[in-house]
Amino acid sequence: MNLHTFKRGIHPPDGKALTNYKPIEILMPKEGALMVFPVSQHIGAPCEPIVQKGDRVLLGQKIAEAKAFVCAPIHSSVSGTVKDIKPMLTPSGATVNSIIIENDGKFEEDPSIGKETDENDYKSMSREEILDKVKNAGIVGLGGAGFPTHIKLNPPPGQEIDSIIVNAAECEPYLTTDHRVMLEKTDRLVMGLDVMLQLHPKAKGYIAIEVNKMDAFEAVSKAAEKYSNIEVIALKCKYPQGSEKQLIYAVTGREVPSGGLPASVGCIVDNVDTVLAIERAVVKNRPLMRRIVTITGSGVNNPGNYQIRIGMNIKEFIEAVGGLKEDCAKIIAGGPMMGPALYNIDVPFVKTSSALLCLTKEEATLPEESNCIRCGKCVGACPMGLMPLELNQDALAKDYDAFEAHNGVDCIECGSCSYVCPAKRHLAQSLRITKRTVMGIIRARKEAEKNGK
Amino acid sequence: MENNLMVSSTPHVRSNETISSVMRDVVIALLPAAIMGIVYFGIRAAILIIISIVSSVGFEALYQKLSKQKVTVTDFSAVITGLLLAMNMPSTAPFWVPVVGAFFAIVIVKQIFGGLGQNFMNPALGARAFLVASYPTAMTGAAFGATSYGVIGAVDATSSATPLAQLAEGTVNLTQQDYVNAFIGNIGGCIGETCAIALILGGVYLMMKKVISWKIPVSYILTVFVLTYIFKLCGAAPTREPLYELLTGGLMLGAFFMATDYASSPVTPNGQIIMGIGCGVLTTLIRLFGGYPEGVSYSILLMNLCVPLIDRYTRPKIFGALKKEAKKS
């Protein structure tokens, strides 16, 4: 089999055996549960609430409207009463204005949304109609980035899209939701890609899967047989294979230019759950209200894959699925390589919550940092071709000019450098922090140049 | 429990490899050659190795204590320096020589420049160069031949010069037995440099464990072979035998264990090839045309000094960088 991949990268233990055989279970919020919907669950401007305290809302009803260009609306995932609209803590650690709805347990559906049994004929829909459905469904990149999908699907004129790639690499250790979706909702997934191809008739569709999911690869290949313009691609198991730029390189051989977006090389990349959400929005008229999450790690009693309602409280969810073990010491929202650690689990699931990884104290304790021994392993691991040891020195010296000259802003924060470092240096951490500062400096400089002219 | 959740920056998992595990692998890889050195040169070699390791570790601990730093001798790096230093000495060296050498290697070359990872040249080689320059009689010459302490004692006790010195003089004709002897280490030389097979085994172990890459040793060894062959063919060095050059004069020890020292070798893949080729060219030139029969240690030291420059000019290509420039033009 011809395996596609990118240069460098790492091979962390994948931890997927804990949950990759467990079917997705549906977990509905309990009656009386308080659902929290932060108005900012995406990259871009926050939405504006269009309901008021005391209002009764229905399942699927739009409760916050997207007014800005880069924005996505939010829908209630239950029926019930708006209890309050106030700032609440979110998984990212930020406090965001949120709509709080008490679930009445009836799940009464808003008449504006379609039925589960609907099968709209997307083939006859116009481009605008499809984009409009995606936009109104509030779909954002569910892999973690949260970029509004309708914008991604509709690149500015002049950028011809010839490849639409479904990111099914799932290279983060422990995560198994994409794997399960590919096995259990195979046809819906492939149909979702076909919907996207409807927008770009000249483009070819790719579903790119790491070969540690051979069963999924076979299932998807079979389902894709009846679509002539969809190809299933086998990827080598390597982290960060699912990083957008690395995936595009593996599938098409193209390099997204530094600072550029996938569309600049004719590509659109969306993750598995996002494509499923597109299919639901267009074919069934259902807005984004649910997502698939993995709860896993040795700190949890019952690891598994669950379909949950966005807005559910994470603490209540954990209790509902069997709770944490005594020695659980760290909970990560996402995978171990890039997911942020939660300091408080009394927060809601948002659109971009992909997993809860619960680690024991022993696993979570990070080793102490020591001198760089210049082994060069970070240089051999960095998928972007950077020299993390040098950028780390620039960062520690606060030498922002050198950091910029050494291409530090190209860092994708995948953490490969920190993972391989035998001296256990906090490479990725120092790069991430300094990258923010340097990007600010660059922005300010560009601004000044513009004003000067 | 919820109020006591641990938080830290990503990534939350790290590889099992640590500095100590890497350094321990290097020690393991050096052991076969060190043991063969003891087999050939006897108990004196063992005593020199022990003195060298103990003084290296001792000086490191002492320096770090006195300068109020964290004592890091458990990372095995001083053990390697001590072991390499002794392996680069003749078995006849007086017992104070490794002590002076360890002081120079650890304090002057390593710690004064910032300790682990900060030394700009290989500490053991720096110390060897210092010892050879300061105490030439203790470090070279007649010292090589004496093997009366040796367990096997098969080395010709009358030969006062190393094989390469004899070759340079054109006084020997190599037989098949000479190659076998060089391969198994039954020749004159420093404690750890003679047994080519043990050194190759150690080097292969390090490559399999991914402690070192093939780039420096292979390009180094190939360069010496090819260059010597060319010089032999064109008549500039008619008495030299390329294959024999590889097995003697500490080339295997240098290529696998000294030129690959992390702190004083390039971190970039292309830089490592340049390092290997540079060492190979210098070694061959010194051996064939220099006044010194064995060029390995000075070539590596000279290339050590070029490392910052090599790293600067061999940066990997940034992902997506080329096209950006193409777009601009």
Sum this structure up briefly:
The complex is a heterodimer of chains A (453) and B (329). With 453 residues, chain A is an alpha/beta fold. Chain A has helices spanning 127-136, 149-153, 177-184, 186-199, 214-224, 244-252, 272-284, 314-320, 361-364, 377-381, 388-396, 400-405, 416-420, 427-452, and strands spanning 24-26, 34-38, 48-49, 56-57, 62-65, 74-75, 80-89, 95-103, 163-168, 204-210, 230-235, 267-271, 290-296, 304-309, 328-333, 341-342, 355-360.
Shape of chain B: globular
**Percent of residues of chain A in beta strands?**
15-25%
DSSP strand count of chain A = 17
CATH architecture name of the largest domain in chain A = 3-Layer(aba) Sandwich
Q: What is the alpha-carbon Rg of chain B in Å?
A: 21 Å
The CATH homologous superfamily name of the largest domain in chain A equals NADH-ubiquinone oxidoreductase 51kDa subunit
Walkthrough of the structure:
The complex is a heterodimer of chains A (453) and B (329). By secondary structure, chain A is of the alpha/beta class. Chain A folds into four domains: 16-24 and 115-284, 3-Layer(aba) Sandwich (Rossmann fold); 27-103, RNA polymerase II/Efflux pump adaptor protein, barrel-sandwich hybrid domain (OB fold (Dihydrolipoamide Acetyltransferase, E2P), Beta Barrel); 294-364, Ubiquitin-like (UB roll), CATH 3.10.20.600; 377-452, no CATH class. Helices cover 29% and strands 19% of the residues of chain A. Chain A has helices spanning 127-136, 149-153, 177-184, 186-199, 214-224, 244-252, 272-284, 314-320, 361-364, 377-381, 388-396, 400-405, 416-420, 427-452; strands at residues 24-26, 34-38, 48-49, 56-57, 62-65, 74-75, 80-89, 95-103, 163-168, 204-210, 230-235, 267-271, 290-296, 304-309, 328-333, 341-342, 355-360. In chain A, the strands form four sheets. Chain A has a six-stranded mixed β-sheet with strand order 1-14-13-17-15-16. In chain A, strands 2-8-7-4 form a four-stranded antiparallel β-sheet, with no helix packed on it. A four-stranded parallel β-sheet of chain A has the order 11-10-9-12, with helices on both faces. In chain A, strand 5 and strand 6 (74-75) form a beta hairpin. Chain A is globular, with a radius of gyration of 22 Å. Chain A starts with 23 loop residues before the first strand and ends with a helix. The model of chain A has no long low-confidence stretch (mean pLDDT 91). Residues 142-160 and 323-329 of chain B have low confidence and may be disordered. The termini of chain B are far apart. The radius of gyration of chain B is 21 Å and the shape is globular. The chains are: A alpha/beta (453), B mainly alpha (329). At the A-B interface, strand 15, strand 16, helix 9, helix 13 and helix 14 of A face helix 1 and helix 15 of B.
